[in-house]
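Demo today. Your pick:
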Amino acid sequence: MDKLVVKDYTSKNTQDCCICGEKIDAMVNPDTGKEIWTKGHNALPIKDGRCCSDCNNKIVVPLRIMGAISDKVQKISDLSIDAVKDYDTAVLTEVEVREGTKHLKKASKNLTKARKIAQQVQALLNGLDRKLDNGKD
């Protein structure tokens, strides 16, 4: 089987790269030096045309890879945003719990005061009841 090598080699059969404008390099058989392919690489999604190996390797292929993983990156991004929203909700919930606890403690103190006042009022009422009961006799 013949080995194919991309070589910095141009011939009358090569065209200009649609990305950088330089001549497209040809694939040649290293043993025979015979041109195997002179039409370069598909330049999509950058441009509709043919490109050299350098532009293919540095621009086209990385962009294709990014396109292939962009959906996954978007899903990861969405999950990250959801996680942050959940975290924010958890933090807010903690804050709300702390604030609620403060209010409950204050309410508890107020209830304790109210209970003491109610006990004092009850004691006064009991005393009035006794006096009234004693007055009836």
